[in-house]
Amino acid sequence: MEEDKYFNTQQLYGFLPSENKEVGKLATLALDMRWSWNHATDKLWRQLDPELWDQTQNPWLVLQTVSRNRVEQLLKDPLFKEKLDALLEKREKATNSSAWFQEKYPQSGLTHLAYFSMEFMLNEALPIYVGGLGNVAGDQLKSASDLGVPVTGIGLFYQQGYFRQEIDHDGNQKAIHAFNDPGQVPIIPLRKPDGEWLRITVQLGGFSLWLRTWEVQAGRVKLFLLDSNDPANLPVHRGITNELYGGGPELRIKQEIILGIGGWKLLAEMDLKPEVCHLNEGHSGFVVLARAAEIMKEKRCSFEEALFISRPGNLFTTHTAVPAGFDHFHPHLMENMLGQYARDVLGIGLERLMALGRQNPGNSEEYFNMAFLALRGCGAVNGVSQLHGIVSRELFSCLFPRWPLNEIPIGHVTNGVHMPTWDNEFSDKIWTNACGKDRWRGDLADMEPAMCQLSDEALWDLRSICRENLVHFIRSRFERQSRLGGRRNHLNLKIEDIFDPHVLTLGFARRFVSYKRPNLLLWDKKRLMHLLNHKSFPLQLVLAGKAGPGDETGKALIKEWIQFIEENSLHQKVVFLSDYDMGITEQLVSGVDVWMNTPKRPWEACGTSGMKVLVNGGLNLSTLDGWWAEAFSPEVGWAIGNAADTKDNGLSEEREAELLYDMLEYQVIPEFYERKPDGLPLRWLERIRKSMSRLAPVFSANRTVREYTDNYYLPAAQQYLERSAGITGKGREIFEIQQQIRQHWDKISFGDIQTETKGEFHVFRVSLVLEEIHPEWVSVEIFAENGNGGMPEKIKMERVENMDDHRHQVYTGKVPANRPLSHFTIRVIPFFKELALPLESSYILWQR
Ligand SMILES: *Cc1c(COP(=O)(O)O)cnc(C)c1O
């Protein structure tokens, strides 16, 4: 069996097979993307080809590119072989040992979770991402691997991924499409136990579409990818998975059908039965249909019952702060793409399917909203920061008419980043000394006190070396891109004059979209120039970012920056790096002193780039939006504007720009240059110490994944298992009651209501006409808003027993009379311990 642990090279794709089993061992290491955050194997790859390694840091590319002769020759070296075997053994231990999840939940009902996402950002070697959403997916997969949470990712393999960016010297963005050769990225065909490559089919607008399947290994977890570039397909179908977020709604819905329905089918073909599906954004919403379809077959039940059974096992994470962020599909498109599926597979008409994606199911004009489908197919919903939770409750409140905003059933789990991915060799050393090698694999309990002990010298050495390395990176990129643009000779600049390793370095890199306001710093160009050119306390600024291919406003923002640099010959102090990707991020978050973020509150759902600097001792300067609204305190960084408790902070753009300049000029810059005789900026270093020790643990994906596991995954698995086992007994009953409530709720009405104040209490007596609704299915409550926007006061009323006619009921209750009687009102809501409310039954009747 020994050999089975390692790849048989014949099974790989686009790789020269070898009789030599040792080559299979190398391939096994090179195809485990653990190398993207754990650098134990770096030296081995470097030995194969130092130059190629330094250029790419991509083991799979190195192994494929180096001549087979060289590989065979090295494999004859006993020292090399010994090293290889030791690394494989270490890898095996890391994969099979028990981790946080196994220790904390040894008897867990959660054996498998499928995580669906349109994009995954694991490493630039596998470019199937655009930005934030892929970052969240990739970093959470990696942390799940660290923690031993049994997750499998499901995504798409894009032949072109997202466009690559070139910028000409006038500032025009050009989109370039590079090709992802599946034989040259670290993926392999997904094979059935007998070795055959798994192909699956989905139905798409009357055609049967073949999908190829791929497998990515990332530590303990796997990521399965689907693509339609199978030669058996019609040429037009082969291109469906070409581009990420390319084309219009028709292409998008096809991709989403592949992801949701194809993704579920893939799991079924592999005999994998996850208890929980996590939908990262609404794109993968169709999976709730496919999962229900399978249950229909298994339990021989209707679609409605099947959806009811599977619902608690689905979790929906929403990522957008505006309605336009949701995918909407025209009814005709839905009919073309899914009409037949609705009728033949789900046994429901198109109208019922459409109803799942509409605010008003009766409105046949309304488009199909993927987020609404996800919400109606999931047993829990969450936003991605505290503030985004509030924003999301408002966004989805239209689906819960007459419910108070703070009872809209959407929670939040604040995103975090995978720290081992974003640290560098120098910060890694510091963290290892303070907190040990396994620091990101446990519950992080002792991290803060340990990090508080770091000396000023150690922190300043770290910052100095990181900044210097960044400066070298910026120089070499600058050199490369001015050569590419044919400008190298015109600029007449010595490369050593680009950036200064001792100058305060500000970073700003993100998607160039208007709500992120990448030009806020350009509001008053004179003032910015003044800061950049200060004789004693200068500033330098590195920028990067792509504008969406069709986003002219975003492109204009890039142009504004380029022209600002060109017109004022600021190349030595301001550099715009083209082709922002994960590799650039790694360098920037490692070296900048201050990471700047200027979104318009509350448009940034969370934001993650600023979290990446924490582990390296970078500091944040940001508007109070997304994660920063909950992370900021005056000791750990800087806020632009104050902590307004309104969602929109009410400041004009001009005022915010002014506050940003003031913050830089009067606080950030002076603090950086305020040095003790030994050259150390003590206040600055104290701020770094606080930011690293307090914020890095909290905004790590380790914390995020533990929170999802404790609060969402485990309850979801348990509720799903209960419902799925119980559908013949109690579960069936609840399902029937839910249907009854749907049919008869409108018939409930209030009868006589008496109130009086007796001593210290307001006393209520209410009669209620329930008609077909059984008294045990409802809860009658005395309700009052909490004046401070907190959770309302809710007191359950008692039913007066022994009524002859269950259609008429009387309820009594009392509340302390410390508020006026007029604050209180009576309401009736459904009542079930077994249902997520009001998510699964959103009826409500108010006295007034
Ligand atoms: C981290 C990252 C993002 C997400 O950053 P935001 O804070 O959402 O702007 C986007 N793109 C890349 C390449 C990243 O590394």
Automatic annotation (TrEMBL):
Lineage: Bacteria, Pseudomonadati, Bacteroidota, Cytophagia, Cytophagales
Signal peptide: none
UniProt record similarity statement: Belongs to the glycogen phosphorylase family.
Sequence ranges assigned to domain DUF3417 in this UniProt record: 22-126
Name recorded for this polypeptide: Glycosyltransferase family 1 protein
Bilayer-spanning residue ranges: none
InterPro entries named among the record's database cross-references: Agluc_phsphrylas, Glyco_trans_35, Glycogen/Maltodextrin_Phosph, Glycogen_phosphorylase_DUF3417
Reactions that this protein is recorded to catalyse: [(1->4)-alpha-D-glucosyl](n) + phosphate = [(1->4)-alpha-D-glucosyl](n-1) + alpha-D-glucose 1-phosphate
SUPFAM superfamilies according to UniProt: UDP-Glycosyltransferase/glycogen phosphorylase
NCBIfam families on file: more_P_ylases (TIGR02094)
Keywords: Allosteric enzyme
